[in-house]
Amino acid sequence: MIRTLLEEGSIVDIIATFVALAIIASFVLSLIFIIIGGISFILSAGNEEKIKGAIHTIRFAIIGFVVTFLAVFIVSWIARLLEIPFEISFSMILDIMREISDSLKG
Fold it and tell me: Phi and psi of 47, rounded to 5°?
């Protein structure tokens, strides 16, 4: 996928793909940190400092998730505003995620 894109794609396609990969990575990291915060909240055993740290982890992960979600719309809006043929959508992100999971399966 990446090799074909680098050999045959335009610079706009390459940038769009790397932006989509960055968005996928930030979604995954946000979900991982939400899970880590939830686990540390469960394992805090009533310790106020650990509870506070877990809540901060969850809060910042959710903020990161929302910012990532908004980034898709902001990048698309700026591209349309500047009339750049930069197409990034959730379907493109899902297609890339499918290709990544298929390549990991074998």
Answer: -70, 120
